[in-house]
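Contributing: when you submit paired examples, paste them exactly as shown. First protein:
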Amino acid sequence: MATVNWDENDLSTNYVLLMKFQVVLKLLAALRVSIRFFRERLDLKLVFPLFDAKYYINIMLWAFGMEMTGAKSLALYPDLPAETLRFGPLLASLSLSLSLSLNTAIKHPFSHICPGFIHIQTNGRTDFVVYSLSLPPTGGSMTDNANPKMGYRSDIDGLRALAVLAVVGYHAFPDILKGGFVGVDIFFVISGFLISGIILDDLAKEKFSFLTFYARRIRRIFPALFLVLCTVLVSGWFSLYPDEYQLLGKHVFGGAAFLSNIFFWREVGYFDVASSVKPLLHLWSLGIEEQFYIIFPCLLVFTWKKRFRPLTVIVLILGVSFFFNAHLYRRNPIADFYSPYTRFWELLAGVVVATLDRQPVYFISKIKTTIDAFCEKLLFLDSVDNNGRTFSSLVSIFGIILLLFAIFTTRITQHFPGFRALLPTLGTVCLIASSSQAWGNRVFFSNKAMVTIGLISYPLYLWHWPFLSYAHIMDGGLSGTWSWFFVRIICVIFATMLAILTYRYVERPIRFGQRAKNLKVFSLLCLVFCIGASGLTVYLKKGLPQRSFSATDFVERAAVRKKIQTTFAFISYILPQDFHKAFIGNDGWLFLGNDYDSCLDKLTGEISPAITAHSESSSSSIIALLKQYDGIKKIIFIGPNKSTIYPEHLPTDIRPSSHRYISPILQKFQESGIDVFDPTEVLLKAKNDKLLYYRTDTHWNNFGAYLAVQGLLMHLDFTPEMIDKAFGNLDFTSGPPHNGDLINIGKFELKAVAGDNFVPVWRLPHGDLTLIESNGAQKSLPSLASVGPGLDTPIRIMNPNAAGNLKVWIFGDSFSVAASPFFNAMFAETLYLHRGSKSLLLEGSPPDLIIYEGVERDF
C-alpha cells in the first residue's frame, strides 16, 4: 500500500470542478466493466493503456479535492509508480511511502468493478473510497494478511494450539475427548490459508518461484520429520518383531515420500484396533497436505498467467472435492478418510479465505457492513464507528461454537469426514476470516499460553503418537486400568518436552536461520531420502529377522517389554496380554500365536506356575468344575503346543527349557483325583512318519489328532477290539494345502504349504451321523464330519454304528475340531461343550465319561 500525504495550503479548492470528475469517473468505471468482460474472454489487451493514464489523473484530482472535506491522507492499493503521480498542480508537496498495515481498508460499492482500490481517511474515519480500474489485485483486508512480511497473526498460532490439543487429547484419552480427531481438519484449513496467501502475494509481486516455495516447505517440514522418522526406526530395531518391524519400515518410507495416507488407505481403517500399534499412523495428514502442495501451486500459477479469476477456479475445485467426499463417506468411509481428492476441499476452504482477503467481493463486503451496522445499533447505546469489528467478533464467536461442538460431539462410530467435516472446517474459516482483532480471536487464541502451544504444534503432533503407539505395543494388559491412564499422561509429557526441544534447537535454527539456506535444503533432502531408503530396505528385507539382539531373541524381547511395563505402571506383576502374533521359525514353520509372550516364557522356563495368578485360577476352576460330577469318570486331555512336538523348527535363538511349565499343573490335577492324559510322548514317537501339526497353524492336523485320540482311548483301557472296530476301517489321504491361522494372525505374505494336511476316509462304507441342536432340530452329517463346540450352544452327535455304546461329554475348544471325527467314531452319543460355556450343568441322564480338553499354552 502507498500512502500519500499533502499540505492543505498547497491544494486546489476547486471542489465543484472535482465533483464533475466524479460523473466522468463513474462512466469510465462502467465502460471498464464492459471492456474487462470482453478482454477476459477475447484477450483484448490493447484497450487498457488508453484508460490507465486518464484514470491516474482522476485519482490525483479527486485526492486534491478531498482536502475540501478535511481528508488528511490518501491510501493507494496497490503501490503506484511514482511517475503516475506527476499529473497535478502540486506534486512536489507529495511524498510516497510504503505502508505495511491493511487494517483500515474497507469495501465500496464499486469493488465488483475492479480489484484494487484507494481510500481516504478523515480523523480515523473513511469518508470517500475510489477504486483503481487497472491494476491486478494485491491487497485487501477481509483478514489480516497471512504473509509474515505483511503482519503476524498470533491468533492463527492459538488456533493451531486448539487443533493439536484436540488431536493429542483424542489419541491419549479417546474415551474423554471422543471427537478430538477433527483437529486435523482445523490444521487443513489453516495450512490452506497460510500457504496460499504467500503464493498469492508472491504472484502479485511477480516474484513467485517454485524453487523458493518448495525450499521454504522443506525447511519447515523436514527437520522435525526426519528426527521423528529416525527415532522411530531406531527404536523399532530394538523392540519390534520382524513382522512389526517390516510394517514399520514400510510406514517410514511412506512418511518420507509423503505417501502415508495411500499406504494406510490400502491397509486398514484409521479407527481399527490395529491402528494403535502403528507408530507413524498420524503422518497420513502430512501426506495429504504435501500432495496438495505439489498440485496447487502449479494450478494457481497457471490460473494467474492465463488471467483467469483464481477465486472462481478454486471454488469449482472445492465443489468437486466436496462432491466426492459426500459421495464416498457412506459407500467407502476408509477411502473417504484417506483419499486426497476427498480432503482437498478442506485446504481449499482456507485458500478461499486467503483469496477473498486479496480480492474483495462487493456483495460480501456490503453484507458485512450492513450486518455490522445493525449489530452495533442492537448492542451499543452510543454510536460507534462502522468498522466491521462487531460483525467480526460475532463471526469469531460463532466459529468457536462450531469447533467446540465438533470436538465434543463427533464420534468415531459416525462416518467421517462426510458432511460432519463441515463443522470444524466452517468453524476454522469463521475464525480466520474474522481477523485477529475479533473478540474471540483476541481473547481465546491470542493469549500467550495458546500461542506458545501453537508454536510447537507441528513437532508436538509428530512426537505424541509414536510415544502412545509404542506404549500400546509394550502394553501388558494395562489397558482400562488406572496405570494405563498414567502411562498415557507420561507419554504426552515426554512428547511435549521433545516438541519444545525440537522447536527451539532444530526447527527454528534451520527454518529461520539466514546462513547457508541452500546447503540446509540440500542436506535435509539427502537426510529424508536416506531415512526413506532405510525404511524401504527394512520392508524388503522382511523386518531384518537376522537382528541378533532384538527380533529373533524372543526371550530378551519379552523381558524388555516387561521392564517397560513395570517402569510405566509402577508394578512388577503385570503379564503381557494376548497380542495374537506369529513368527517364522526354521524351514518356514510358523509358531506361537495367541498370548505369544506368555507362551514363549513358559516354553523357555522364564516363568513358572507358582508365580502366575492365571495358572492358579485356571487349574482351580477346572478342578472345581469337574468335581461337580461325582461318581462319573473324568479325564483331562492335553493338547501339546506345536513347539513342544517340533522344537527343532523354532527360531534359532529360542532354547526350550528341559522342565515343562505344565508339569506342576498336571501333578496338581492328579493330586485332586482327576486323571490326566498328555499325548506328547505318543506324538514325539510318531512325528517322523507323518507331519502331525500344520506348518502354518497353531493346531494339530487330522492325523496328529487321530494319534492323540487313539492314545487317549488306550490310556482309558478301551479294548483293542473296540479301538480296531472304531478305526480299523480308516485311512488317510493327502489333503489340499492348508492356509493356517498363523498366516492371518501374523499377516504374513505366505502361501499355504503342501504336505502337512491329511484327510480321514473310510475304506468301506460307514453310516451317517445325526446332529441334534439345542432346540431339538436334527440333521444328517457325513460319518467323519468335523464339529466344534459353540461358546454357549452344546452340539450333540449320535452315531448308531459307533464302536462303543457310551455317552460322553467333551469340554473343548478349537483343538477339538480335528479330534471330533474320531470321538464320533468311538462313542454312540457325544455332547460337545465349550470350555468357556456359561451353562455347564445340563439336564438329562449323566454321561459315562467326561473329557476336558486343555491346550498346553492356555494353562
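Second protein:
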Amino acid sequence: MEIRLNRGRQARFFEVLGVLSHGPEMSADPTNSGPRIEAAAIGMLVGLDAMDLGRVVVAGDYVRFDETSRSSLKDFRGKVNAGLSGASHRPTNLLIWGPPGSGKSFLVQQVARTTAQSTRLVEINVASVTANEFRSKLAEAAAGPTDAICLIDEVDSRPAETWPYELLLPALEPTSSLPHRMVFCLAGSGGADLEEFRGGIRARPKGPDLLSRIPRGNEVSIPALGVGDRLCVAAIQLLAAASDEGHRVREVEKFALFYLATNADLQTARQLRAAAVSGALRIPPGEDRFRFDHLFAPGDPENKRFWYEHHDARLSLAGAFLAVTPPQSAHSVGVDREGPPSPTPDPTGAGESRHRIAILPFRNISPNPSDSYFSEGLTEELISTVSKIGALRVIARTSVMRFRDGTKSAAETARELRVGSLLEGSVRRAGDDLRVTAQLIDVATEEPVWSITFDRRLENVFAIQEELARRISESLHVQLVGTEGATLGRTPTPNLEAYDRYLQGRQRFFEATEPGFHAAITLFEQAIALDPQFALAYCGLAEAQALQGNRGDVPLGPALERAERSVQMALRLDPDLGEAHAAMGPILYNRYRWKEALRELDRAVALEPNNVQAQFWRAVATGAVGRPEDGLPNALRAVELDPLNPRRRVILAQQYYWMRQFDRAIDILGSPLLESQKDSQQMLAYSLLLSGRAEEAISAAERAVADLSTPSVQPLIDRAAIFARAGKPADAREILGDLLERRKEHADVPAGAIGWVLGALGEFGSAADWYVRAHEEGSIVGVPDLLVDPFLDSFRTSERYPSLLKLFDLTQAPLPVEGTPRSALSRR
C-alpha cells in the first residue's frame, strides 16, 4: 500500500506497522479488540495522509495489508495459475489453513475470478454434503469440459467417517489424467496453526495418504485479519459500496475507519461490507467524503456512545480525512478480473465508470408501427449480448425501458441510471431490409464516441448485434477474455421466422398479464416448431409457463412441471446457456428443491455475472436455506444492474431484515422509489415492528392495504401478522377469519400464509397443520420464512418445527454464514 506521512511521524508509523504486521496478538479474535488494538489503530491513522488501495490487492477483491502475507498469498495464486496453464492434465493439489474469518474461501473465489473466464469453480463443503453428493460434485468437477478449480472446504471435518478421504484420494492421484486442467484447494481451520491442522488430518484413516498428495511447497497458511487488514478492507468496502450507490468517494474520515477497524462486532470482511453498504445509503447526493455519522441511522444511540467513549481517538481522528485511491477491482470500477485497468470514473459525468453502460430502447421508425416488438426485442437481445462481456456492467431491461419515450436528456438519463456510457439508436424494417443506427455517448462530455449505420438484410441481424457489442468493448478499452468472443458471435437460431416469433413472444411476456402469458406461450411454441433446436425459445416458454402457475392462472404443480421440462430441453441443446440455468433456479426453488436451485443459480451467475434474474433469485434462495449474508452480494448486484426496479431494492432490504439488521432495511425501504410498492410497505412494517416502533408499523401495514382493488390478498395477510405481533391478537384473528372464508371460494389465499399468521399468533399446532397443507398443495408462500423470518422465532421452539423442516427438505440446508443470529436456527 502506498502511503504518505506527515513529516516527523515516520518512526511512530513504522513502530505501529511492526506491531500490526508481525504481532500475533493483533489477530481478529474478538476477545482481543481492546485498548491495545485501538491504540495501534490510532497510531497508524494519525500518521496517514493517503492510501493507494490498489497496492494491497492479492487477487480480485481479496486484500492484505502486510506485505509478507500478501507476497505469500500471491505465491499461492501463482501456483493455482501454473496448474491451470501447464501442459500436464494431472491435478495440482494445494492445502490451505487459516483461522475462522480469515477468508480462505473468499481467497480461492477471487483467485478463480482472476483466471480465464472459462475456468470453472466447484465448491464442496465436506461438513454439509452426503457421501453421494460429494461423489457427484467430484464427478462434476472432473467431467469438464473446461479447466476447473475445486475448493474442498472443511476438509478436516467428519473425523469419525472414512468416506470423504476414500472418495477424494482417487481424484488427487498424481498419475490420473483428466480431459482438462484441475486444481484442488483443500482448506480448513482446525488446530491453532498449519502444523496442528496437518496433524489432525494425519491422525485420521487415510490421512497420511491424503497429505502425501500435497507436494512440498504447496501448503499455505493464512493469518487472521489484523488491524491493518481491517483498515484496508473497511476502506475498500466503503468505496465499493459508495460506488454502488452512485458516489465517488475521494476521502474517508479517519474516525469512521477507526470505528470499523476496532468494533468487536465487525470481525470479518463480510460484516465490514454490510456496515459499509448501510453507510453508503446515507451519503448525501453530490458528497465525495465519507463521514463517521454516515455509519449510523439518525438517532442511533451507538453513534453517541462510541463518540463519547473514545474521547482521545476522537480528538485525533474526527474531522481529519484520509485521501483514498480505489483499487482497479470489480466493485470500484466494474471489472470482473485482473487485467488492463478501467478508466477512472469521470467526476464531471454521472459519477460512474464508463464501463457502466445503459442500452436505451431502440426507436421503431419502421413504416408499420406494429413492428415495435422488433425494435424492443432487438434492444433486449443487444442488452443480453453485451451483458456477456464480464468487464462491463449493463443495466437491465426493466430499468432502461422507462426511457423508451426519449423525452429525457442524456445527462438526466445517465444520472437516473448511474451510468457513464449510453447506447441509443433506431430500427427501420421494411420486408427483409433492415436499417439499424446506433451511437455510443460518453456521459462525461455528452458527445458521441462513435455513430454507425447498418443497411443489411434481415438475416444479418445477429451479425449487427455482434458488431455493436465488439465496438462497445473496443471503445471502452475492454479486452474480451476466455470464451467471450465466441459467445458474442453465437447465432441463437438460423430460422428468421422462428426468431421473429420469439421476439413477439418476449413482447407479450413482458405485458405480465394472463392474456399476455397465454399469447407468449403460443408464440414460443410456434418458434420451437419452426426450429426445434432454438434453446432460447425453450427458456422463454419455461418462464411464461412458470409465471402462469405462480400467478394462479393455471394449477401451479403442472405448470412448474411443464416449465422444468422446457428448461431441460434448452440445457440439452446448450448446457452453457446462462439464461437456461437462470430460468431453472426459480422453478426448482418453487418446488422446494433448494440445493438444486442454488446449484443452477450459481452456474448462471458464473456464466453471466450481469444476468439480473440470476443475481436476484440467488439472493432469494440463499435466504430460504438460512444464509442471507451469502445472498447479500447478489442482492446488491441486482440493484446495481436494475437500479429503477423497486422489487430489487425490496429484496435487498429483505436480506437485511432476515439478518436482523432492521435499521438498514428501514433505510432502504424509505426510498421514494418504493413509496407506491405494496410489498415494500409490508417489509417496512415488519422491520419497524421488530425495531420497537409498533405504531409506525401498523401505519405502514394500513398503507399496504389502502388500495383493496388489488387482487392480491398478501397485504391482508401481512396486516394480520403485524397485529398478531403488535399485541392486537383479536384484530389479527378477525382478519384471519375473513381470509379463511375467502379461501373457501378462491384459490388466492395460500395455506403457508395462513400457517405463517398462526405462527405469529403463537398457535403452533394449527400453524404446523397449515404448513403441511401447503406442502400438499405445492405452494411456496410462507415456506422460505421457516428458517429465517424473525416473526417465527418462537414458532421454532415448537415440537413440530423439526418435522416441518424435514417435510420441506430444509434439515440439510447449509448453516448460515457467520453473523446470522442463532435464534433463527433454534430447534433446527
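If you have annotations for the second protein, write them as plain sentences, like these:
The CA atoms of residues 161 and 502 lie 52 Å apart.
The first strand starts at residue 2 and ends at 5.
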